[in-house]
């Protein structure tokens, strides 16, 4: 993902219009970047049980951190409407960045899942049994990709909800801030809603793909388990 531009420095006593112009540029940059995010494929491996434990542990840790760190803007010592608007706008930028990252991670894991699936099917076509250890390792990697992708999708959905709340808070300030700031804030809100709509669309596609991948995964796992059970008597007879 491309690096986001740094915001201009503004004094706390004066919200420059260029600050909001920068946010509008950032939102436009985000809309362009969203469609071109490329996923880095990770190495296949691991088993489903280990993957679940690892992902659940990461989720637990992040939930604990979120409970501590995620405070609303109204908890801050900001009473001036202009300062509040700037704080909310900065919070929007943070949430945009987080959401882009989560969606990009989901895309990367979906690509990794597809790579594992293609390799698995190619192995079957070449005569490798579904009960072969190499196939089970591929299934483990696919399971890990799906679990991590699902976590990213849930994180993206949570962050999008926060984005909606902050946009609503910012919209509520448009009648309280100064005239120049109000114009900038309105642009930030309008552009922000476009970004959110684009993010929602991308996330919904990822969620739909996640459901399809889960169904594929379950069918393959059931088939592999059946193949393993069928081959067990033959192995015992050879022994």
Structural summary, described in words:
There is one protein chain. The protein is an all-alpha fold and 239 residues long. It has a domain at 46-56 and 80-229: Methane Monooxygenase Hydroxylase, Chain G, domain 1, CATH 1.20.58. It has 5 helices and no strands. The chain has helices at 17-34, 48-69, 81-125, 133-172, 179-238. Helix 1 runs parallel beside helix 3 (81-125) and helix 2 (48-69) runs parallel beside helix 4 (133-172). The longest helix has 60 residues, at 179-238. It starts with 16 loop residues before the first helix and ends with a helix.
> Helical stretch count?
5
Distance between the termini: 54 Å
Structural class of the secondary elements?
Answer: mainly alpha
Mean pLDDT: 75
Helix content: over 70%
By CATH, the topology of the domain at 46-56 and 80-229 is Methane Monooxygenase Hydroxylase, Chain G, domain 1
Low-pLDDT parts are: 4-18, 35-55, 234-239
Any idea of the CATH class of the domain at 46-56 and 80-229?
Mainly Alpha
Q: Mind describing the biggest β-sheet?
A: none
Radius of gyration: 24 Å
CATH architecture of the domain at 46-56 and 80-229: Up-down Bundle
Which term fits the overall shape? Answer: rod-shaped
Share of β-strand residues: under 5%
Number of strands: 0
């Amino acid at each position: 993902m491309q690096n986001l531009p740094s915001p201009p420095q503004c004094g706390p006593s004066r919200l420059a219009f260029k600050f909001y112009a920068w946010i509008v540029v950032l939102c436009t940059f985000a809309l362009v970047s969203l469609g071109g995010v490329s996923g880095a494929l990770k190495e296949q491996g691991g088993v489903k049980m280990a993957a679940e434990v690892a992902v659940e542990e990461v989720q637990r840790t992040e939930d604990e951190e979120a409970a501590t760190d995620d405070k609303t803007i109204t908890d801050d010592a900001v009473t001036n409407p202009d300062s509040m608007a700037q704080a909310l706008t900065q919070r929007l930028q943070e949430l945009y960045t987080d959401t882009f990252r989560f969606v990009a991670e989901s895309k990367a894991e979906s690509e990794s899942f597809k790579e594992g699936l293609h390799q698995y099917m190619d192995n079957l076509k070449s005569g490798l049994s579904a009960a072969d250890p190499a196939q089970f390792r591929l299934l483990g990697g696919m399971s890990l990709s799906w679990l991590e992708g699902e976590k990213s999708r849930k994180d993206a959905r949570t962050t999008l909800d926060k984005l909606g709340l902050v946009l609503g808070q910012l919209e509520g300030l448009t009648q309280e801030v100064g005239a120049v700031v109000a114009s900038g804030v309105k642009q930030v809100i309008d552009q922000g809603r476009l970004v959110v709509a684009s993010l929602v669309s991308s996330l919904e596609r990822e969620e739909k793909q996640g459901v399809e991948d889960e169904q594929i995964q379950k069918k393959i796992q059931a088939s592999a388990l059946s193949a393993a059970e069928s081959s067990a008597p033959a192995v015992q007879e050879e022994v």
